[in-house]
Structure prediction request, 322 residues.
Amino acid sequence: MHKLENNINDLMKDLLNDYDKGRTIDEVKTFDHPDKEVITEILASLRRIIFPGYFRNRSFRVYTVRNNLSMLAEDVIFKLIKQISIVLRYDKELENADEMTLAEIAEEKTFEFMGKIPKIREYIETDVQAAYDGDPAAYNKDEIIYSYPGLFAILVNRIAHELWLLRIPIIPRIMTEYAHSETGIDIHPGATIGKYFFIDHGTGIVVGETTVIGDNVKIYQGVTLGALSTRGGQALKSKKRHPTIEDNVTIYSGASILGGDTVIGKNVVIGGNAFITRSVPEGAKVSVKNQGLRYNYDASNPVQSEAPQTIEVDDESWFYII
Prediction:
């Protein structure tokens, strides 16, 4: 037992000494860190506020829904003020501000954000409609609201984007990375997205910080709206690095559209697996060269054929991979 205690003491001494090397990971902040669990709770409450008939607490009767929403809103307000007051110190202009100043700014930003909820609800209603109109596998809108990962990722982005516009550090990114972990859809909170946005399937989608997306845009799984190069590192901060997607564009699975100067014009269709680094004019259809398929077979005995026949197929459906 004595030997075990000595081993533990030696180990702890080495571990504690390891914290004294002055690295980023060794830093102990003099202020609190944002609480990821609380921020996730805020998201859940905001989801209930935005969809009051879907995600409300079922222990409340219908006639108390308004009271329930009031309690939810009050809970969000107090939690958000606390979390914003913590992260405001990451703003260099406020890192030395006193607690009262931070609390006042946090309260102001919280109420400004809460005032954006009707706008968020207006936009998410169009996203639900876009999903219903665009997906023949959707049998009703309830199915979309309850189960579609694309809609959830869009909802979180619309919430986080409003916080991003208020220049609130860290919290918007925590929100969208939570959605990313839940859905496999990575949308930066800085991305600007118009109405009637539809993500179908969704897994593997990446939308970068400075992306601008217009109205009535549909994208499928595996699409990347990214930067052409990030080798410039921090020197590229705040520069337009990601593409602009104008209205009524459809982007099929696996396509990559890269670069801040790249503009995809209105009514464009981008075929599956296309790799695009330059602008596309309005109304164009972009596709990878049609895949040539080759079949070797014997109609009488397809398993054991001594003299297989060959058919070459130029498959037009290659363009529309979903």
User: Anything to note?
Assistant: The chain has eight helices and 16 strands. The chain has a mean pLDDT of 88. The chain has two domains: 20-185, 191-322.
